[in-house]
Amino acid sequence: MKKLSVYHFTFILLLFFSCSQPSTVQDEPEKEVRSADVIIYGGTSAAVTAAVQVARMGKSVIMVSPDIHLGGLSAGGLGFTDTGNKEVIGGLSREFYHKVYQEYQKPETWKWQKKEEYGNKGQGTVAIDGENRTMWIFEPHIAEKVFEDFIKENNIEIYRDAWLNRDNGITKENGRIVSFTTLDGQTYEGKMFIDATYEGDLMAEAGVSYHVGREANSVYNEEWNGIQTGVLHHAHWFKDDIDPYVVPGDSSSGLLPLISAEDPGAYGEGDDKVQAYCFRMCLSNHPDNRVPFPRPAGYDSTQYELLARVYDKGWRDTFEKFDTIPNRKTDTNNHGPVSTDYIGMNYDYPEASYERRKEIIKEHEIYQKGLMYFIANDPRVPEEVRKEMQIWGLAKDEFTDNGNWPHQIYVREARRMIGNYVMTENDILDKRETPNSVGMGSYTMDSHNIQRYVKPDGFVQNEGDIGVKVPEPYEIAYGSLVPKKEECENLLVPVCVSSSHIAFGSIRMEPVFMILGQSAATAAVQAIENEVAVQEVDYEKLKTKLLEDQQFLTLEDIQIADR
């Protein structure tokens, strides 16, 4: 018998161990593709109404939501609804507000306040419209319940915390999306796709044209779109001369935080900046449902020195936008020259990676929590303001899995598609006829501040805040929901719609998003049924179905409904 060489012995030993030891690297089983007629990406209010409409029209639908909590801003603190003319709100959007009304008919809903004690005022009209059985002002958790009920009642298949793979995650063939993959490796395949996110990630990854920032006024022959230096609307500007320097009067000491040293640009020019974001906080002054404002990690009181100087000039309007909602709570929004809007700190958000967006969101959270703590505790704040702020705190029974802080930051604008038709202020102000309406808007053309800069006279000022009332409700074109055909034939975009910056300032209201979500879904189903691209949907058939489902497309439709 031959002796084993060292080489043979080693080989046998290695073979033994490779066979007897478990593999340290195992291939994951390939995930089964999830398929439906319509795939909706997003968890916003528009995503929910789109999903419900598809289901009610008898087609299969899957919601792929990066969000765990549904409803976007409507369930994220924005309970003081920006309605405009309520008569133009129909279809599933109105059904949502009807379902909210039904929740507030239950005695148990009024936990911290008697129903008869609620003032029932807001937005120039009643919050609870008993005649029309709708309610327009509500608590975040009630809104979220209504959205969840929509999902359950219509048996919507939904996957949460599912994030689009933005690195070659979309498969396209012959100008159509075939499928997309999420970061967990799951693939979703459909005949039609709807991007119902605030950011427009699916739209962007599909190769659809879009814009970020303000277009110059010359692009669409507008007045209110571009840089608005010298234009001062609302109350969100410095009415007094406020010194911007660390040492007042000494420019060599440097600027205070959150003031840009850059030239703001010339009036009417375009830029790549977006209006400020914030969180719509839900606060409570009920002793048993109030969490005192905590001192956040990373708190820096110098961030609020500019506000202290505003107080020194006698400004006392801190609580003007503590808008009351039921149960002794608020929807607290930005108000004044220095407030919850984190001006200039979100410019990279629309195009940023997921990681960078999380950083931006956290920065906004620290700033805003710090602002509340500063006002409630810092001796530089007038005593009467401090004392009033101390009776408020975060609502203990809201956002209970997130430290009572809203899940959703207010993304007032991000990307906006450049589609088949671009909505501009000329549509909003009724200066031209808008084709093929799929819904109506009526809210003021509204942009929050975009920059904070030093004027030539050496004092600080804000720029970008616009509030231009519309003469009457206006129509929103079907072409603003669809890309150019050569870019994508089976995608609809009801949130990042094709519009100029200032036109989007009116369109961007939550009731309108719900309206457009339903209209986009209706078009998607009809495109499937007629085997056409979304750009080729027969408008007359689309219009007939939308009217059948109680959508309002023109002022005449409202008049007919009132007869």
Percent helix range: 25-40%
Number of strands: 26
Say which CATH homologous superfamily of one domain is assigned: FAD/NAD(P)-binding domain
| Shape by Cα distribution | globular
Give the oligomer, counting copies of the same chain as homo and different chains as hetero.
Answer: single chain
Low-confidence stretches: 1-26
Structural class: alpha+beta
> Average pLDDT across residues?
93
Could you give a short account of the major beta sheet? 7 strands, mixed
Strand coverage percent: 15-25%
Q: Counting H and I runs of at least 4 residues, what is the number of helices?
A: 14
Using only C-alpha atoms, the radius of gyration works out to 26 Å
Task: Explain how this protein is built.
This protein has a domain at 34-92 and 140-213 and 414-443 and 468-562: FAD/NAD(P)-binding domain. It is built from 14 helices and 26 strands. Helix 2 (45-56) packs parallel to helix 12, helix 8 (354-377) crosses helix 9 and helix 12 packs across helix 13 (539-548). The N and C termini lie far apart (107 Å). The chain is α+β, with helices and mostly antiparallel strands and 563 residues long. The strands form ten sheets. Strands 1, 2, 7, 8, 9, 10 and 26 form a seven-stranded mixed beta sheet that branches. It has a three-stranded antiparallel beta sheet with strand order 14-18-15, with no helix packed on it. The longest helix is centred in the middle third of the chain and has 24 residues, at 354-377. The model is unreliable at 1-26 (pLDDT under 50). The protein has helices at residues 6-20, 45-56, 91-103, 140-153, 201-205, 217-220, 305-312, 354-377, 383-389, 425-428, 501-507, 510-530, 539-548, 555-562; strands spanning 34-41, 61-65, 121-122, 125-126, 128-129, 134-135, 157-160, 170-173, 176-181, 187-195, 210-211, 245-247, 250-255, 283-284, 290-291, 322-325, 329-332, 393-395, 416-417, 437-441, 445-447, 451-454, 460-463, 466-468, 474-477, 491-492.
